[in-house]
Amino acid sequence: MLNEFGAWLDASDLSKKVIEKHISNIDFYINDYLLYEDTTEAKDGANTVSMFLGYWFIKKVMWASQSSIKSNAVSLKKFYKFMHEKEFIGTEDINELELTIKEGMSEWLATLERYDNPSLESVW
Question: What is the distance between the alpha carbons of residues 57 and 124, in angstroms, rounded to a whole number?
Answer without folding.
Answer: 14
